[in-house]
Design brief:
Length: 192
């Protein structure tokens, strides 16, 4: 499990390796960037980050496995968002909604603005891709759709790393931010 202390230790070790010419300076840049991004992270942020790192396969893994596990991580956050907005979450839990129904319900809890509309469109797309992979043994027939999904997210979010894992990670981070926002006093999911 990654902690601020462990990350600082990795940064220190990486600096030594870079200075000795045994490590690419880009690795150190990555660690420093990550440390900066997580500088004001809450314990819940660290938990979410570790959940992503622990469960989302690396970029060189089977793309089908990346999509399936990534979808599960995304779906968990969609459900968390819904539960954060409901005064009686037990009723929701008993209903046993599928992922597509949860996505539409979560989307309906947001104002109709450009950013959440874009986010929900991408979440729906990963759900569609996951469904196609779950019912089709032929990865090649779904590959163009996956490439389009990655390209759409990478272009819109200006990602340097244009992989399935980076696209899913970005969606995960955006949903995590929405979950955090939904628990604030100023968040409204509807017009008054």
């Amino acid at each position: 499990m990654l902690t601020p202390e462990l990350l600082d230790k990795h940064i220190s070790e990486c600096k030594q390796y870079v200075e000795a010419g045994e490590e690419d300076p880009k690795t150190l840049e990555f660690f420093l960037s990550l440390r900066h991004d997580l500088e004001n992270a809450t314990p819940e942020d660290w938990t979410a980050y570790n959940e992503l790192v622990d469960h989302l396969p690396k970029e060189d893994a089977d793309p089908v496995l990346i999509i399936l596990k990534g979808h599960l991580l995304i779906e968990r956050l969609v459900r968390k968002f819904i539960l954060s907005r409901l005064p009686n979450s037990e009723a929701f839990d008993k209903a046993n909604f599928n992922a597509a129904q949860c996505i539409v319900l979560a989307e309906s809890m947001c104002l109709k603005n450009k950013e959440p509309e874009w986010l929900w469109k991408q979440v729906k797309e990963i759900n569609t891709i996951r469904n196609k992979l779950a019912h089709n043994l032929d990865y090649e027939s779904v590959e163009p759709r996956i490439k389009n999904f990655v390209s759409t997210i990478s272009n819109a979010q200006k990602l340097e790393n244009r992989t399935i894992t980076s696209a899913i990670s970005r969606l995960y981070g955006m949903l995590k931010g929405l979950c955090d926002l939904s628990q604030s006093e100023g968040f409204r999911g509807y017009k008054i």
